Amino acid sequence: MIAYLEGRLLESSEDSCVLFTEGGVGYEVFPVRQVLSRLPARGELVALYISTIVREDALELYGFPSWDERRTFEVLISISKLGPKTSLALLSHFSPDDLRRVVANDDPGALTVVSGIGKKTAQHIFLELKYKLKADVVPGAVKGRDATAASAFRDALAGLTNLGYPEEEARTVLEEVFAAQEDLDVAGALREALKAMARNRSGA
User: Fold this and answer.
1) How far apart are the C-alpha atoms of 155 and 147, rounded to whole Å?
2) How many domains does the chain have?
3) What b/e sequence results for 50-65 when a residue is b if at least 16 CB atoms lie within 10 Å of its CB, and e otherwise?
4) Helices (H) and strands (E) in the chain — how many of each?
5) H/E element holding 180?
6) Pairing, β 45-54 against β 26-31
7) CATH number for the domain including 55?
8) SS3 assignment, position 6
9) What Rg value do the Cα atoms of the chain yield, rounded?
10) Full-prediction pTM beyond 0.90?
11) Residues 91-134: tens digit of each pLDDT
12) Is residue 70 within 8 Å of residue 51, measured between CB atoms?
């Protein structure tokens, strides 16, 4: 399953773009609107997290700028009767943190701003999100900062757990890292967290 793509922008349209990889393969990706509106010039590098949808008659790739958005998309498409196109439309209107706020504020009506989602469907999505969407991944110290820091925290946490580190240990170390350096990006947070974990385990 394709989970990440990095390639040169070959073509783009209203709802998709084609990324040409170093391996000589061009992949058509359907990104969230925020990505489409900020695509670079043709020939420039584009990197996206990918959710791969396999159906009997098609294999479709959906693209996101962060791991948190990809993970939230996976939550949305797991909701009964909610397909990838509508899930993508939701994430084009709401960031993952916006959806968490919808759940926290008990406001299913907010979802009706997305075309094709009426009150009944919004209530159905909301009820499933309450059980499926993690609202507590980001600690309060990071949640109080801007969305970029919150997204960096989640992506770094996902990176550490994918490397095999226990989630509780990874979250504790990342909280300390972000408390010391507020403006870290994902790569910087991972680098500092790995250093801290190595020190902790060596007893230094």
Assistant:
1) 12
2) 3
3) bbebeeeeeeebbbbb
4) 9, 5
5) helix 167-180
6) unpaired
7) 2.40.50.140
8) strand
9) 18
10) no
11) 999 988 888 888 878 889 999 999 889 999 999 999 988 878 75
12) yes
